[in-house]
Amino acid sequence: MPDASTLATWGLPGLFFVAVLAGSVVPVPSEAALAALIYGGTPPATAIAVATVGNVLGALTLYVLGRWVAAGGGGPLGRWYARRREKEGPRMERIEARVRTWGAPALVMSWLPVVGDAFVIAGGMLGVRPVPFIVFVTLGKGLRYLFVALSTAAAM
Questions:
Q1: Which of 17, 51, 66, 81 is the most buried (most CB within 10 A)?
Q2: Which among 53, 64, 81 has a CA at the least distance from the CA of 137?
Q3: Residue 98 is part of which domain span?
Q4: In total, how many domains does the chain have?
Q5: Rounded Cα gap, residues 40 and 12, in angstroms
Q6: Long-range contacts of range 66-72, CB-CB < 8 Å, 24 or more positions apart?
Q7: Measured CA distances, 113 to 24, 27, 29, 45, 129 (Å)
Q8: pTM of the entire structure?
């Protein structure tokens, strides 16, 4: 994977691409690409919007995976998730319990590193409706990118 400075030369399409990957299970530096673009002169509001939309689209892939696994499918991805769930049993159970208790608003936590993906998959597995899913995931991920943008602007 290219470093943040290379991604910055790709501009907003590069940021979008990286944000989609980061929203799925691929660990890539979408925050670093966002900061590099803002540092390079891209308007923060534009960069935040592009990164948020890309990241939410990436999260939708995990949501669909969760729905698919819950319906008894998933193939190799379903087996991967089952292994991950066994390995991280107590953590996954706590996340699923939070999503059951709080419903779609718990998906604001999707911005968290590592466990954010588990919130997204749990949302799909537990049948959170698509519109509330998109609203709360967008809120969580957008706030994360806003924080990164404000931090970058303050450091300039």
A1: 51
A2: 53
A3: 4-155
A4: 1
A5: 11
A6: 66/120, 66/121, 66/122, 66/123, 66/124, 66/125, 66/126, 67/124, 67/125, 67/127, 68/124, 69/121, 69/124, 69/125, 70/124, 70/125, 70/126, 70/127
A7: 12, 9, 11, 23, 23
A8: 0.82
How do residues 23-46 score in pLDDT, each as one tens digit?
887 888 889 899 989 988 899 999
DSSP three-state, residue 42: coil
Residues in the chain: 156
Measured distance CA(95)–CA(110) in Å, rounded: 11
How far apart CA 26 and CA 98 sit, in angstroms, is 24
3-state helix, strand, coil in the chain (%, to 5): 80, 0, 20
pLDDT in tens, 68-109: 888 777 677 777 777 777 777 777 777 777 777 877 888 788
DSSP class of 110: G
User: Which tokens go with 32?
Assistant: 């670093």
| C-alpha–C-alpha distance, residues 150 and 98, integer Å | 29
Helix (H) or strand (E) holding 121: helix 115-125
Identify residue 125 by its one-letter amino acid code. Answer: M
